[in-house]
Amino acid sequence: MNQSIRNIAIIAHVDHGKTTLVDKLLKEGGVFRANQQVEERAMDSMDLEKEKGITIKAKNTSVHWKDKIVNIVDTPGHADFGGEVERALRMVDGVLLVVDAYDGPQAQTRFVLRKALAHGLKVVIVINKIDRDNAEPAKMYDKVLELLMELNATEEQFDAPVVYGSGRDGYMMYHIGEEKKDMTPLFQTILDHVPPPFAKPNEPFHMLVSNIDWSDYVGRIAVGKILGGTAKVGESVFVIRHSDGKRIRAKISKVFEFTGLGTRETEIAVAGNIVGLAGFEDVDIGDTLTADENGHPLPFTQIDPPTLEMQFCVNDGPLVGTEGKLVTSRQLRERLMRELKVNVSIQIEDTDKAGIFNVKARGAMQVAVLVETMRREGFELLVSRPTVIEKVIDGKRMEPYETVWIEVPDECVGSIMQNMANRKGQLTNMEKHQHSTMIEATITTRGLIGMEIDVVNATSGRGVLSHLFKEYGPYAGEVLTRITGTLIATEAGETTAYALIMVQERGKLFVSPGESVYEGMIVGENPRNEDIACNAVREKKLTNFRSQGEGVATGLTPATKLSLERAIEYIASDEFVEVTPKSLRLRKRILNNGARQKASKSQKQ
Predict the structure, then answer these.
(1) 104: alpha, beta or left, given left = phi > 0 and alpha = psi -120 to 50?
(2) Are residues 470 and 493 in the same domain?
């Protein structure tokens, strides 16, 4: 045991103040100077995390408080990033369960907490945001206890200590109504209730690789908790590969300790601490590092299997290469294989067709984050609609089911229930809140694809949807997820206001005047369930007479622009999203109108 160290993970639902709380702990732990300007949510270092306001990658930091080291792992709250959560929980001995004093425990709280309890971790409850209007901290604490009971917490886990406060305003207290001072009650509770890391300092060095970092100077950095012995610079160790059990000799070239938002080099790291080690050319998550030549590989947690698969294809459209630099099949494959090294929860397979790769993942959000990262790196690619991964169990066709929670304004409940019925969702619970209704249902993963868009549209952006993998169940039959058709361009060129005014009479536009389009590209949505070909580049013929309002796009409605995540869920099985560094385009798989109709006829026969 190393009494001077505590290793904790912070778990919470999206937007319950988890990352802001870490910022305050860092500030009070003396990581920032008193006059230092610190950007908010400093732990969310990826651009995508800042833009979406969510945590995507599990990250490590360290706070020194009263001669103790508190290593903190910030975990994602979204179920799609379950692989990140699994890895983080392998390194810690306790969790801070952060719950909003108004919203209470939500879907993602349940997801990560269930994992933490299964690992036997101690829980410290933090009722956050007690300064919110209509906050009910005492009631939310009772709800957390109900959740712990529901998730079969042990008696010790159920007797979790609780603190109340506001991460934003920088105070915590043991009981409601105490003086609002600083974060001391939380620090003290962590030291009192989270056990020091179980480690064996007298045994040879051994560590399970829980994460991989990268540095331009030293290459791959293996991150994990030292379970025994010490790690010294220059020491020889063996890498026992998780994939094939091979043993490879290597030498530790650098040892990094986490401190604040960065790392610092050290000559030696002790048992129980979370560190980064460099000097390994080929090391992966799940590998074991050991100084003992005859050491055994450490067990690696099974990660929830992927439930969705989709195709990543080389861009074969007419505009290929005009906006991105990385467009070849080789470049696309290399990038996907690189992702495989650091993301254990996805699987990538080559197909029998050149330039097409199958990517299996936990959810559409996870894939959207990967695609968005790639487009920012300069890639152009095509992405298909997600399809669920089915299984045959005891000779029966089975598909994944999820539990879904939808919080909607009271007046929108009817339309959401209708939408859910169309998708074969089964209502399991309904709870009335002060200004909203919480709907809980069981639905197939297939039925869930694209539902978030429908919820946003039906509630004018006020609805919130969360979901969690439940189980594999019997195949539910045909599910109608998109009831609209598309408007497809027949000519290549630049769109004109004159042409779009006529096109918009058929439906909703996805393009604005002055955009490049090509044959087979989707330029809008038809309310009826059929595709309509239209000319979006037609120009007005010049005459000797000047018409009234000429040159003005009278009555042209602004185009609807879908985000990447929504576009992936929107497209049908015969469509692609074309992703480039500058544009998102929706298109048919077969671009030529005649060839597409011929293929459609042969399918029906």
Answers:
(1) left
(2) no
